[in-house]
User: What shape does this take?
Amino acid sequence: MFAPGKVLRCGGDDPSGFDTASRLAAMIDLSNWQDGQPASWQTAAPMNRPRRDHNLIPLPGGLVLAIGGQATKDYSQPVMTPEVFDTANPTALWVDWDAPPDPSFDPRMYHSTAILLPSGEILVAGGQKTISTTYPSGDIYTPPVIANESERPVINNSPASIQYGAQFSMTATPFAGRTITGICLMSLGCVNHGLDQHARRVPLAFSQSGLGGYDVVASPNANHAPPGYY
Assistant: This one.
């Protein structure tokens, strides 16, 4: 869920046969139900390569990362190149990100996990090697958007808890010459069977208040952001 009520799905088995993976992608806005309109899937740009058994990770800036997976169900064609989808432009093509430079990196296929870390990096781990063996390993993937750690904004002060619909204040320092253009909550990962049912990005309305200060409005209710840690 890359925004409240908005879900992206992609890949899986190709409709033409169980042995091959699909490139297809679609989006749905479940919040339409609030207006009495039935929600329906809308076609989005297909991935650059077929994948099944991969992981999808919403990122703070509104991109969704597809990582791992395989092109067939027999573990013979792992997909090593991550790619990202811009949810703000659903007709735009997916963009490849860097693949592991070293062929010794383990593929991440069926039963693998991938979660967003507080650092902005991605932890990928596990997965099956064959029908009866697994990879007992993990790797840290650094997305190109945070490759230079020193250029990331720094949160200096923020509340330990917030209330629905309430305004709260925080301070942050952007990298020199840049501005903060978005503030959001990111839920903690919980991956099972290649599916993170708790993946959730919640953009928040905000305004700048003085030097380094920001007045932020929390999500209106638990439908947007269920109670918990972010």
Remarks:
- DSSP finds no helices and 19 strands in the chain.
- The mean pLDDT is 91.
